[in-house]
Structures are given as structure tokens and as C-alpha cells.
């Protein structure tokens, strides 16, 4: 089956200044777009500052220097994406913020929640997760929230521009507030937010709009490519390798050309891709500190609640004892 041959490729006359999706570094590209909008280069870079999100002073790193920082992959505590220069850093806490994240607006009037101002916030604890109302991804970085309506958007969804271009469609798309609209990408109804074409019936949710162009997953040793209909030479019926349900040939899929394997986008999507791990916690039911990690192998149960959990979810783990606790147990009753 041939995949990814898109007859609706973006018209070359489309405004090049629009954010063009999908992109490999989706969040970083979005922040570059945001930086242009607010003329980030014109904002003074203070050598040291106090930020509302952290208790200690943050130091500016704007030029790569040997031995300034270690070589491990570092994530911004704001957008939960790999750090890049310039950024601010607290060595005491291993806390990082992109220069662009430091300068995010503290209040936002968003078109899909115009009733109230939304405030820039972060969770009370480093392991406090929230789920974005637009893309449904769980994360522990910054978010814009309306407490009155219990409505929350992560910063990447909140900062999406009013108009975009997407490889799956030839016309520009404008942001819309969903109302049980059918997403042309996934085939599911969405009621929160998305993008539509004013010339066609094409509509996609925020979730579909931000799917990466390629993805690596344990179900296939090759890179999987986001592919759009029409698919040539596809069989009368073809199925998702993960859930084994039939794939609608009019919906987007992830596909491996080498193995000729296809996957629903909902099955392959990582719903915990914006979580920063590594924090440690003392608990009163175990003698050693527990580390906030991503579960990479199946567990049968947890000490406190006895429940199993899906693989790839965040948990707390003791490396010495192979002892684990789920987030529910942590937050309910066992903190010191």
C-alpha cells in the first residue's frame, strides 16, 4: 500500500508567514512563531531574575560554554520540551526555562474560552499532572487555566495562532471553537477547539493538527510516518497493528513503508509526552526516596492500592527495592 501521497498539499500561494504544520519539533516551532509575534529579540535579557514559577533566582545562559551544564537531555519546566539557548537555569533545583517561556503573557483572552481571562499557572507539585482540554495530553509544565470553568490549555495549544497551514489540506485553516464537529483527521467528534477551512468542509481538532510528521514507537523498529488519504493500492480492509480494529481509509494514519504496517493515530499517540520526570520524593511508607519515572515495563500491582496501570504512565519508583507507587496513592495518603 502506498501512503503519504497527498493530493491536497498546501497551495504554494499560501502565506509563508503562517505556521506550517506538521513539524518535527512542534512545540519549539510554535514558540519560534510566538517569539516573532512579540519581538522577543527586543526584550532585554536580564542576567538574573526571579520568576513567579520558582523560589530561587534564575541565571541566564545565552551562549554555549564548556562545562556550563551537563550533557544530559534537559527539558524546560515551562513547555516541557528540550532546552535551547537562551534559557534560564537554577542549578540548585535543576530547573530550566526557555527565554520565551519566561516571557509568556500571564493572562490570556483565548478565542475558544472568551468568557473569562485565563491565567498562566503551573501545578502545585512537580508531579501534579493536568490534561489539556484541546489536545488531551497530560503534562506537568505551564498551562493557562480558568478555575471558574475548570478549563485548562497547555501553552502550546493556548498559543496556536488564529490561522495555520497544514500539509493535509491545500487551503489555510482558521481557528474555531468546536461544537461536536467531526475531525477530518481522526474521524472523532471534538467539542473544544480546532481549525476549519472557510472554503471546504475540512475541519481538524487541535489534537490532530499537532500530530508530529514522524514518530518512533516500540511496535515497529522503523520511523512511522503520518500519512493522509487518498491511499493508493490499499486492500479492501486493513487493520491497525495495535488495536486490530479496521482502519477507515479516509482518515489519517501512521504508516511504516518498510514493514507495510499501519496504525490509528489515537493508538500511536503518546498521551504523556509532555511530562518532565526525575524529581524525588520522601514518603512515609518506604525508607528510601522515590523517583518520578515513566513506567517502561508492565507492573502487576502497587503496594498501597493493589491496582495495575498501563505502560508508559508516570509512577514513583525506588531503584533499590523495585518498589512502586501510583500517582493516586501518592496524592491520597502517604506523603510525609
TrEMBL record:
TM region positions: none
Chain ranges of the DC1 domain: 53-102, 113-158, 220-268
PANTHER family linked to this entry: CYSTEINE/HISTIDINE-RICH C1 DOMAIN FAMILY PROTEIN (PTHR32410), PHORBOL-ESTER_DAG-TYPE DOMAIN-CONTAINING PROTEIN (PTHR32410:SF216)
The entry's keywords: Repeat
Short name of one Pfam family: C1_2
InterPro entries linked: C1-like_sf, DC1, Vacuole_Formation_Reg
Protein name: DC1 domain-containing protein
Species in which this protein is naturally found: Ilex paraguariensis (yerba mate)
Amino acid at each position: 500500500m502506498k501512503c503519504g501521497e497527498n493530493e491536497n498539499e498546501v497551495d504554494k500561494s499560501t502565506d509563508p508567514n503562517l505556521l506550517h504544520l506538521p513539524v518535527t519539533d512542534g512545540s519549539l516551532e510554535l514558540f519560534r512563531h510566538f517569539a516573532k509575534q512579540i519581538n522577543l529579540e527586543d526584550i532585554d535579557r536580564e542576567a538574573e531574575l526571579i520568576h513567579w514559577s520558582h523560589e530561587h533566582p534564575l541565571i541566564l545562559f545565552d551562549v554555549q560554554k564548556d562545562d556550563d551544564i551537563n550533557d544530559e537531555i534537559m527539558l524546560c519546566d515551562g513547555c516541557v520540551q528540550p532546552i535551547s539557548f537562551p534559557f534560564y537555569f537554577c542549578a540548585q533545583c535543576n530547573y530550566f526555562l526557555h527565554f520565551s517561556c519566561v516571557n509568556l503573557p500571564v493572562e490570556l483572552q483565548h478565542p475558544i474560552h472568551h468568557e473569562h481571562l485565563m491565567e498562566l499557572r503551573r501545578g502545585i507539585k512537580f508531579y501534579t499532572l493536568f490534561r489539556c482540554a484541546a489536545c488531551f495530553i497530560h503534562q506537568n509544565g505551564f498551562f493557562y487555566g480558568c478555575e471558574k470553568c475548570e478549563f485548562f490549555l497547555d501553552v502550546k495549544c493556548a498559543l496556536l495562532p488564529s490561522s495555520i497551514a497544514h500539509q493535509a489540506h491545500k487551503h489555510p485553516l482558521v481557528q474555531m471553537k468546536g461544537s461536536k464537529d467531526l475531525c477530518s483527521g481522526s474521524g472523532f467528534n471534538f467539542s473544544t477547539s480546532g481549525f476549519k477551512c472557510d472554503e471546504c468542509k475540512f475541519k481538524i481538532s487541535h489534537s490532530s493538527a499537532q500530530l508530529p510528521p514522524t514518530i518512533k514507537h516500540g511496535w515497529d523498529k522503523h520511523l512511522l510516518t503520518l500519512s493522509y488519504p487518498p491511499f493508493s493500492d490499499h486492500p479492501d480492509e486493513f487493520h491497525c497493528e495495535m488495536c486490530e480494529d479496521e482502519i477507515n481509509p479516509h482518515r489519517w494514519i501512521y504508516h511504516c513503508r518498510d514493514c507495510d504496517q499501519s496504525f490509528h493515530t489515537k493508538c500511536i499517540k503518546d498521551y504523556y509526552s509532555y511530562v518532565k520526570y526525575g524529581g524525588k520524593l520522601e514518603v512515609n511508607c518506604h525508607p528510601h526516596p522515590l523517583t518520578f519515572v515513566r513506567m517502561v515495563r508492565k507492573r502487576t500491582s502497587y503496594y498501597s492500592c493493589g491496582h495495575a496501570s498501563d505502560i508508559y504512565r508516570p509512577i514513583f519508583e525506588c531503584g533499590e527495592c523495585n518498589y512502586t507507587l501510583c500517582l493516586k496513592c501518592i496524592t491520597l495518603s502517604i506523603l510525609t
